[in-house]
């Protein structure tokens, strides 16, 4: 027999002899037992199998038949008389199936169980397992194998699929180093392991490799907050992820404080949730995460959740001066929520006239004492409400001097100026800050039609007026002005009420003589009279008497070569003045 036929060669071992018990006591041979095999490799790829067995029977044994089957399926039988045999085998990848039977004069023992001699080790664990997605529910799995005897006809692989609980889902066999997995639930998480199976046994399963059709959920978007009640909010969101209908798919809504510490966390399968019983004066931040079979999404962008709005700006600032000191008490109103919260307070800022901040302080109540502030210096005050969840805008700037606005002048007095036709109108002022550099008065004089005839700006508490204003029907109103504020106007006062006596005689009497025409024109000044009587004298004799409302009069057809003059008398509601004479004049023919 040739090597190509892979023939078994049997060499009988020396020593043991078959039993020689008389066949008279033998009904049938017993089966050989304790069959053992020892393998010894050779350098030329051949292997040696030493097979031995035990036998105990009352039958006289003539031989033992050792039968085998070559790779082509041909039976080979060898007969030996010893209890061991050496088999030489040239294909270590092909297992040697054999059987040992006892043969006596009566016959052959019953069938022994067929045994195999395997000349190589079990397969190695497949390695370099790779996964490639071919379609929505189809994957390709491939691997490498460094085992011997992969070309043996029975050599194959099993690809097993497990769920995330390590429970077997499916298994398929292949003789290739790759296979295709189909019809897996694409929303579930699977794990794949590969095992090699050969004539020498099976390998360990490969390291489990995660196989999943769907990716982890997307980060949630369009987070919306809606206040339903005083401490009740609704949070809603959108989700573009796959596998939202998977039974285990859900969301976690986490609430954090301002220090990013977790306050509350709730689960829901809906895309909205109600949050209740949160401290409505605290600031919270909400983040939402989707959790699915393939993992979980990143948390959504934090969205501020707060039951209260930012504090409101303080209003209605009021200030009161402490008696006999430069201290002031400043009060204000605040309609904000959560004023009782521990960190709720106010910032008071005081600025000078150049808007430079000279003081800033925190205040816990709705009032503050301002010490040693001179109200007339024009300081400006601003207030702001502050809380952990926000702050208000600055209040309107209020000038400290606004709380000491000037008062209108009172107690008007009129005094004449000796030697002139002028009057001093004076008054009293009980306002503060009269020494402030910009403090002054606006004196406005109106005629009987309430049309303003004069306005003067004075720093003193008096003003000089000529007779025109005092004697005619004029009215005066005065306003105090200081540090940008001004008083209301004083009540109107009639200046004529201060005269109360007969008018002064006219003054500044002048004449304009036209000798050739024998005419004379007389002019005078008197602002308080309502009319005038003009007498024309020739010598000491009055030859003419005229009345006028004007401050001038003309006389004609004057006598020649006579001593002439004119006398003017002012008439008012209080009587008549003394007569004011003109200078003497003459009409002399040329």
Automatic annotation (TrEMBL):
Name the record gives this protein: Phosphotidylinositol phosphatase PTPRQ-like
Domain of life: Eukaryota
Pfam families in alphabetical order: fn3 (PF00041)
Naturally occurring in which organism (per UniProt): Clonorchis sinensis (Chinese liver fluke)
CDD domains: FN3
Upper classification of the organism: Eukaryota, Metazoa, Spiralia, Lophotrochozoa, Platyhelminthes
Residue ranges occupied by any Fibronectin type-III domain in the UniProt entry: 125-218, 219-311
Record-linked InterPro entries: FN3_dom, FN3_sf, Ig-like_fold
């Amino acid at each position: 027999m040739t090597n190509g036929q892979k023939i078994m060669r049997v060499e009988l071992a020396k020593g043991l002899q078959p039993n020689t018990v008389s066949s008279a006591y033998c009904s049938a041979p017993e089966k050989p037992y304790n069959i053992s095999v020892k393998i010894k490799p050779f350098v030329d790829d051949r292997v040696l199998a030493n097979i031995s067995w035990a036998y105990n029977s009352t039958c006289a044994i003539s031989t033992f038949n050792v039968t085998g089957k070559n790779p082509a399926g041909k039976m080979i039988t060898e007969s030996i008389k010893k209890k061991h045999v050496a088999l030489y085998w040239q294909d270590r990848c092909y297992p040697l199936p054999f059987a040992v039977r006892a043969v006596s004069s009566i016959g052959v023992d019953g069938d022994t169980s067929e045994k195999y001699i395997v000349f190589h080790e079990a397969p190695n664990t497949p390695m370099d397992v790779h996964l490639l997605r071919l379609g929505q529910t189809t994957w390709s799995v491939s691997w490498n194998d460094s085992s011997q005897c992969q070309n043996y006809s029975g050599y194959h692989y099993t690809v097993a699929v497990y769920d995330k609980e390590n429970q077997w889902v499916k298994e398929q066999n292949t003789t290739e180093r790759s296979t295709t997995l189909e019809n897996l639930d694409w929303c579930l998480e699977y794990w794949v392991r590969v095992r090699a199976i050969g004539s020498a046994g099976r390998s360990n399963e490969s390291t489990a490799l995660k196989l999943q059709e769907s990716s982890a959920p997307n980060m949630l978007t369009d987070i919306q907050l809606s206040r339903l009640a005083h401490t009740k909010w609704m949070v809603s969101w959108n989700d573009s992820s796959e596998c939202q209908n998977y039974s285990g798919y859900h969301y976690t809504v986490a609430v954090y404080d301002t220090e990013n510490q977790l306050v509350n966390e709730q689960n829901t399968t809906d895309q909205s949730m109600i949050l209740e019983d949160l401290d409505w004066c605290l600031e919270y931040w909400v983040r939402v995460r989707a959790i699915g079979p393939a993992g979980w999404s990143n948390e959504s962008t934090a969205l501020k959740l707060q039951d209260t709005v930012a504090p409101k700006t303080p209003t209605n600032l009021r200030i009161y001066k402490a008696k006999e000191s430069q201290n002031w008490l400043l009060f204000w109103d605040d309609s904000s929520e959560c004023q009782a919260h521990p960190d709720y307070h106010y910032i008071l800022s005081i600025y000078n006239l150049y808007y430079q901040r000279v003081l800033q302080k925190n205040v816990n109540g709705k009032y503050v004492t301002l010490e040693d502030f001179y109200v007339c210096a024009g300081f400006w005050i601003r207030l702001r409400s502050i809380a952990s969840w926000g702050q208000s805008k600055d209040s309107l700037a209020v000038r400290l001097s606004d709380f000491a606005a000037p008062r209108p002048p009172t107690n008007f007095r009129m005094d004449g100026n000796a030697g002139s036709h002028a009057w001093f109108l004076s008054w009293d002022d009980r306002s503060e800050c009269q020494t402030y550099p910009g403090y002054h008065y606006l004196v406005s004089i109106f005629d009987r039609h309430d049309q303003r005839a004069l306005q003067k700006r004075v720093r003193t508490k008096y003003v000089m007026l000529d007779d025109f204003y005092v004697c005619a029907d004029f009215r005066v109103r005065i306003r105090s002005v200081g540090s940008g504020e001004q008083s209301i106007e004083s009540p109107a006062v009639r200046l004529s009420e201060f005269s109360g006596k007969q008018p002064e005689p006219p003054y500044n009497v002048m004449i304009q003589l036209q000798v050739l025409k024998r005419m004379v024109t007389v002019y005078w000044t008197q602002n308080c009279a309502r009319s005038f009587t003009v007498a024309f004298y020739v010598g000491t004799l009055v030859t003419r008497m005229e009345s006028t409302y004007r401050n001038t009069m003309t006389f004609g057809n004057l006598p020649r070569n006579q001593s002439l003059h004119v006398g003017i008398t002012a008439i008012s509601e209080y009587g008549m003045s003394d007569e004011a004479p003109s200078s003497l004049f003459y009409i002399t023919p040329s």
